[in-house]
Each structure stands twice: as structure tokens, then as C-alpha cells.
Amino acid sequence: MSTEKDQPLHAPSNAPENQDVAMLQAIADRFDVEWDAEAKAEAQATMMEFREALAQRLGHIIDFHFSRLASLFYRIDLDERIVDEIFTTLPQREIPYALADQVIQRFHHIMETRRRYREAREHESDDPPAEESSPDTPS
Question: pTM for the complete prediction?
Fold first, then answer.
């Protein structure tokens, strides 16, 4: 049985999956993950492969640049309580994967919020401006 994480990143004609490509590239850029989202999408790379690459990068940051981790998570507004829970409850080998899942989930939420905001702004601009009339002006 295949899961969402095993699905290809995108198909050229599927707009939501194109958003996944943009999201993954944004994560890769923010966390310095070696990942060319468009090339990987063309090669039918899976979300699981991206998760693995991100987890490896997070593991490296944990091992060698731990102080940078808080700054990265702060910038994406990742809930500190969730991060603390991951570090205190999971075995060390699972921590990078759990953090990768949280980062992907957070970026998905960020991208969805931006999409909704953009759509709301587009609908506002589609509405004709209401004519303003002051009470003193005869109609």
C-alpha cells in the first residue's frame, strides 16, 4: 500500500503538486539541503526521498551546529513545545526524522496560508469598488 510520502512530487499538469515542488525547494533553500526540486520532480522523486535528505541535513545541524537549529525553527515559527517534545521523548536516531516531518508540515501550512491569502486578495481586486456617497450629496 502506498502512502502520500511515497507519491511522486509532481506531475507536470497537476497544479497542487507544482506547489509541492515550490514548497520543497523553499525548505531545501532554508535548510541548505542539496535538492533541486524541479529536477527531482521530473525524475519522479518521492516525498520520502526528500524527507530522508532533510532528516540527514537536520541530523548534521544537530550534531555540528546545534545553536543554529533554534534560529532556523524560530524563522519558520515551528512550535517550540513540539520541538522540545521531540527531543525529550524520541530516541536520538528518530529525532531528525520527526523534525523533518514537522518542518514539512509547517511549510505546507505556510504555503497553504499564502495561497488562501493570495486568493482572497484576488477576489478583492475582482470586486468593483463601491461608490461612495456622502450624506450631503444628493443621489
Answer: 0.69
